[in-house]
Amino acid sequence: MNRIWGYISGILAMFFFGISSPINKIMLYEMDPLVIAAFTYLIAGIFLFAIRLSPLKERILDFINHDSNSEIFISKKDYIIILLTAIFSSVIGPIAFLYGLRQTSAIDASLLLNTEVLFIIFMSFIIFKDILKRKDVFGIFLIVLGAIVLATKGEFDELFVNQNFIGSLLIISASFFWSVDTVLSKFLSNKRDLILISALKSSIGGLLLFLIILIIGIDILVPYDLLSLLLFTAIFSVALAFIVLYFALREIGSSRVGAIFPLASLFGSVSAFLILGESFSILEIIFGSLMLLGVYILYWDPKLKGNKKPLAPANDKNIK
What we know:
Blueprint: H1 2-28, H2 33-53, H3 56-65, H4 76-103, H5 106-112, H6 115-127, H7 134-152, H8 163-184, H9 194-216, H10 227-259, H11 262-276, H12 282-299
Helix pairs in contact: 1-5, 1-10, 1-11, 2-4, 2-9, 2-10, 3-10, 4-8, 4-9, 5-11, 5-12, 6-8, 7-12, 9-10, 10-12, 11-12
């Protein structure tokens, strides 16, 4: 039964991640990307701190940690990692993603976020000395091929003046920074108080983004009609997604969570079609499907004797 709930939690996390792309696209019509990111992460941080101060804290932590030997103590080194991951995942990542989303479609953005898996695999290969199998090389090839075609639309003339291409590059760069966070978060994943860690990362990111806004002098007013969307993204796609994702990781393991990671792109693409009315081109259908297949191949393990990959390609920071 726990495994069933693990799968349900993983799918729910992918839904929260995926649906945020079209919602952010709507907010971008009236709000600056920096303002969206700052409010999203600050609200998520406040929400998580509120949970941590409530009677729900111990219930949630017991639920997440019920079958694991987690560490209670958080060292100075851990706080340094928290600061670094906050900068990568809650500042640089969302800035790149939202500015990229403003210049491309939510469907393309959702599909291109699969490149995060690619970066995670490469960094795990370099840092943790993971062994790449033939199927991994094939999966990597499919993701790279799909990303190139989706980013360029098959047209290679004057790429760097093409708005869609620049937006796609920003989305891919956001995936890179989020993948760095995922890899670094491996050193924090065995801590008991994951709510505190995520709350700190979100709050630090939100405060740093507001500092940037004040320095630049951007208007921070939020249109009243977009407030509900902002709250939904912060609470569900960042804060609650973190809780259900970590429960899924503890119940079914990173390999299985990685195998269902393509659902985030699928949910994002379908919701962009339903909410925004964006249409799927033949290129997006074919090469987006190839990217999803590539991700599945990378994390597919017919034996599932253990977690062959060090991490699943998702975490608590995503505006995805």
